[in-house]
Design a protein that fits this description.
Shape: globular
Strand order of the largest sheet: 1-2-3
Number of helices: 14
Mean pLDDT: 87
Number of domains: 2
Helix content: 40-55%
Distance between the termini: 84 Å
CATH topology of the largest domain: hpI Integrase, Chain A
Low-confidence stretches: 307-311
Largest sheet: 3 strands, antiparallel
CATH class of the largest domain: Mainly Alpha
Strand content: under 5%
CATH architecture of the largest domain: Orthogonal Bundle
Length: about 300
């Protein structure tokens, strides 16, 4: 069995049985292909000659050791480890190998870096800097308000259709990772920005607008569905006007959404549902960004927060 045939079977397993996102599938494919090519290089064989039963724990460790020379991020190393472990587990369960050499392989611990955020006053100022005289400006403001007002992911925003927005009830339907559907409410600023944009959206429709593009909520200046790189550039452009934050991306607006909710008393489980996290552990990273805020509230509100002077 060739490398590519088994990898193709594993890819279909990820897509159909695991319902993994396209981004996850592509990352796993790259990682596994890299590992299998490493094995073939070490054994000085062609990929078509690869026997998976020859792969042992030592080979996996040699591969991981070779990766360390480029000093990858711990999160990258953890994903590559998980990719190979999942691939070999798949092969073992289907009887393609007699033992699973990755069975006891532990994932490297990930770095727990606090998410970058932007202050509410900076975001308010950013919204005011958008020139809304043209339909494209109204679109940009609606995009910014919706990203910050709902905390949705970039891919979720790109995939939105006009029918997914309920202006009357101020809520939007999105399809998150694993095609999981959820409903997210949004506030008056986002509702007003969306309403103003939708009134002039048809002005962006042109000769290049395909049938699927007609369904898209957000259109480019040439009438096509917006794409991730365009949104990333737009967000970076507007954030650079008001903030010195090192990362200027749509995900920063998602982080800010979650952190500001937590700062104002929203429960962590509510934020988990709004963000579309499958695991509460993914949401708990935001609690670290609010420690200083909580400390300040305690100092202000608790009568015994400050030490009393000795009488």
């Amino acid at each position: 069995m060739s490398e590519f045939l088994l990898l193709d079977r594993f890819t279909k397993y990820l897509e159909i049985e695991r319902n993994a996102s396209q981004r996850t599938v592509e990352a796993y494919q790259r990682d596994i292909r890299q590992f299998l090519n490493f094995c073939c290089t070490e054994w000085e064989i062609e990929t078509t000659e690869l026997r998976y039963d020859r792969i042992d724990r030592l080979m996996i460790r040699l591969w991981l050791g070779s990766l360390m020379s480029s000093r990858p991020a711990k999160s990258t190393l953890a994903r590559k480890t998980a990719s190979v472990r999942s691939f070999l587990k798949f092969a073992f369960k289907r009887g393609l190998i007699s033992h699973n050499p990755a069975h006891l392989l532990m994932n490297p611990k990930k770095e727990h870096r606090l998410p970058k955020t932007v202050r509410p006053e900076e975001l308010a100022l950013m919204m005011e800097t958008v020139d809304t005289d043209e339909p494209s400006g109204k679109r940009d403001l609606a995009i910014l308000e919706l990203l910050y007002g709902t905390g949705m992911r970039l891919a979720e925003l790109v995939g939105l259709n006009t029918g997914d927005v309920d202006l009357g009830r101020r809520r939007v339907k999105v399809f998150g990772k694993g095609s999981r559907e959820r409903i997210i409410p949004f506030g008056n600023p986002a509702a007003l920005a969306l309403q103003n944009y939708l009134l002039e959206r048809n002005q962006l429709i042109g000769k290049k607008t395909a049938s699927d593009d007609h369904l898209a909520l957000f259109l480019t200046d040439t009438g096509k569905r917006v794409y991730p790189r365009l949104i990333q550039r737009k967000v970076a452009h507007y954030l650079s006007r008001v903030s010195e934050v090192s990362q200027k991306s749509p995900h920063v607006l998602r982080h800010s959404f979650a952190t500001h909710l937590l700062d104002r008393g929203a429960g962590i489980r509510v934020i988990k549902e709004l963000l579309g996290h499958a695991d509460l552990a993914a949401t708990q990273i935001y609690t670290g960004t609010s420690v200083e805020h909580l400390r300040n509230v305690y100092r202000t509100a608790h009568p015994r927060a400050e030490s009393t002077k000795s009488e």
